[in-house]
Amino acid sequence: MTSTHDEPSGSGSGADLDTLARVTGRVRAGIEKVIEGKPEVARLALVVLLAEGHLLIEDVPGVGKTMLSKSLARSIDCTVRRIQFTPDLLPSDVTGVSVFNQDSREFEFRPGGIFANIVVGDEINRASPKTQSALLECMEERQVTVDGTTYHLETPFMVIATQNPIEMEGTYALPEAQRDRFMARVSMGYPVESAEIAMLDSHTRSNPLDDLEPVTDAAEIRKLIDIVSEVYVSDAVQRYAVAIATATRKSPELMLGASPRATLHLVRAAKAAAAISGRDYVIPDDVQELAVQVLSHRMLTTVEASMSGRTPEAALRQIVAGVPMPESRRAAT
After folding, report:
1. I want to staple 310 with a disulfide (CB 3.0 to 4.6 A). Which of 44, 183, 203, 305 is the partner?
2. In a domain? residue 171
3. What is the per-residue pLDDT across 257-301, written as a single tens digit (0 to 9) for each?
4. Sequence-separated (6 or more) residues with CB below 8 Å from residue 155
5. What are 306-319's pLDDT values in tens digits?
6. The pTM is what?
7. Is residue 60 included in any domain, yes or no?
């Protein structure tokens, strides 16, 4: 690949990027004290946070899904709420409800669990689709409408939801509209042997979450989000992201491809990844490396592809490999 200097720089200063690197480094260090041997998972969680997205953590029970979400939440001095999704959870438990006050003779709004900077939704696919849909407006528009009145959610606002694979007993598949609102999905996977041994040593003596102290706050996260928003994305990189999304819509193996929202999420995540890497511009590698994590959970394979054992992830990797990468890359200036 050739390097060129003809593209304008993003407006984020070197000092801003240094601040972002310092803060995100401290948060990652805290997460990695709790989640052994998964630095890439911690990095993706930070990418989604700074890109103003939501994270879906999917894996079998016992691999640290809830610990990851809790460790990120505890690393930031902000409001945190946890919602335990169960079959009897009601939509009003999530969004809030208007209650009649006998003394004032007026209805008062009592906020639900969604009113926080970081919302941990544990085992989201154990709730009914009706309750899951209560999150749609919150996640996309960052507001809640109850009885005709709209209540805005403060920035930063991030939903970190965990779910077990849909084959597990007592789970409901997330609706397509719900999945599309999650910026990225990550699977924890089993730890390597050395990390599991280290976990046995540290987690049996005490809970590492108890020793985790906040290393930043909501105000600083808002500043970092502003820095990420100024990261430059060239026309070539934008066309590359759109080309990947378009290819998923034309794939004979997929009956549901990437939505325009998915393309937007991919570019936003790439901007956050570039900033964390110390760059004020996005390179095609940022898009390529995030494509599977940002797009695959939105894909649905055809019946034929599914019967032959093809997964959306496998189909997407083949698609990304087949989309030509832009020839020119920005060199660091």
Report:
1. 305
2. yes
3. 999 999 999 999 999 999 999 999 999 999 999 999 999 999 988
4. 52, 117, 142, 218, 222, 225
5. 888 889 999 999 99
6. 0.86
7. yes
- CA angle in degrees (0–180, nearest 5) for 79-84-87: 150
Residue at 290 is within a domain: no
Phi, psi dihedral angles at 235 (to 5 degrees): -60, -35
Core vs surface per residue 177-210: b (16+ CB within 10 A) or e: ebbbbbbbbbbbeebeeeeeeebeeeeeeeebee
Dump pLDDT digits (tens) for 35-84: 877 888 889 999 999 999 999 988 777 667 788 888 888 899 999 899 99
Distance CA 103, CA 27 (A): 46
- The total number of structural domains in the chain stands at 1
Which tokens go with 166?
A: 């849909």
**Residue span of the structural domain in which 122 resides:** 53-213
Q: Verify cis geometry, omega within 30 degrees of 0, for the bond prior to 284.
A: no
For the residues of 14-78, what is the DSSP string, one character each? Answer: HHHHHHHHHHHHHHHHHHHHHSTT-HHHHHHHHHHHHTT--EEEE--TTSSHHHHHHHHHHTEES
> What kind and span of H or E run contains 304?
helix 303-307
Report how far residue 301's alpha carbon sits from residue 307's, in angstroms, rounded to the nearest whole number. Answer: 10
Tokens coding 19: 């601040």
List the CATH number of the domain containing 118: 3.40.50.300
**Cα–Cα distance for residue pair 16/195, rounded to 1 Å:** 34
- The helix (H) or strand (E) run that includes residue 308 is none
Q: Is the pLDDT of residue 185 over 90?
A: yes
Residue 30 pLDDT > 60, yes or no?
Answer: yes
Does the pLDDT at position 1 exceed 90? no
List Cα–Cα distances, 194 to 76, 158, 188, 260, in angstroms. Answer: 28, 32, 16, 42
Does 302 fall in a domain?
Answer: no
Q: With cut-offs at 50, 70 and 90, classify the pLDDT of residue 331.
A: very low
Nearest Cα residue to 319 out of 307, 303, 305: 305
Q: Give the whole-angstrom CA distance, residue 145 versus residue 152.
A: 9
| Dist CA 9 CA 311 (whole Å) | 39
